[in-house]
Amino acid sequence: MSVEDPAIITCAISGAIANRAQCPAIPYTPAEYAAEARRIVDEGGVQIHIHARKPDGTPSYEVEDFRAIRDAIRAEIGDRAVINFSTGTVGVPVAKRVAYLEACRPAVAALNMGSMNYAKYSRSRKEFVFKFVFVNPFEEIVELLEAMHRLQIKPEHECFDLGHVGSLAPLLDMGLLESPLHADFVMGVVGGVPASARNLAAMAGNLSEIPLSEPSARSAGPGPGSQHRDFGYGPPGRPHHWGVIGIGREQWMLVGAALSLGGSIRVGLEDNFYLPDGEMARSNGELIAKARQMTEDVGRRPASVQEARELLGIQRTPQTAGRTA
Hints:
There is one protein chain. The chain is of the alpha/beta class. The protein starts with 8 loop residues before the first strand and ends in a 13-residue tail after the last helix. α2 (63-77) links the parallel β2 and β3. It has helices spanning 30-42, 63-77, 94-104, 138-151, 162-166, 168-173, 197-208, 251-261, 284-297, 305-312, and strands at 9-12, 47-50, 82-85, 108-112, 116-122, 127-134, 154-159, 182-187, 241-246, 264-267.
């Protein structure tokens, strides 16, 4: 990837942990998701990462809630953004996660690439605010990848540490993945990689060293009567794509670093509530506007939604993919 490439600006619209007592702008209802989606695309966001909630704000992994949110967003913005569903959770069976992917067919689905300690630490209190083991064994990763392949969904590999990047190579060698890969480096979670420009460069460098695969029969395009898929990866040799996900107020430093290194960026109320000046954002749109400004200030160009599809290795749109998003 290069600074000559346009930068994809992604928004993590709500998350599943934070609530309105912490940030009043977090959307709960499908109509609120749709209103936030409008603000996002109007400010230059071209991919929306979705955790579903029930209208009371409770996290949901039910098909009906994902569908209602997707449909409300699509009714509001059409195909102006790539829809990306989370599959990350604790204690929810893989089959339940596959069910909402199957019913809603997002263009992209996030896939956590390894198990880890996951915590938030308070320096003032000298204790963990919360801590747990985030379990993502290879068995579950493979099961989700097989489902995504069958459903024509591009995986977004969320890598919380350098070892998670290393886990991509064997999956590519096994034929469970095909290049270009799409990885996001999640930085700033206690238990994962610390947030720094040097660590970000190391993760990007390790991803770039993973060889590109040749198109296989599984993705070379459907023949007569075939059920195989075509991701529409574009020209052979397209490099793997990467972006950064900064957790907390260090997000803006990481946005600047990623833009300087040629990567893409994610902001949004799932990851961070605050603008660089410390003011709490009143919407996802405010965070996206700042991300777009930073992109332009360093001489990069925000990607259009079509350019985002090309960089991510997807060509499907809601109009050409039936029930998909």
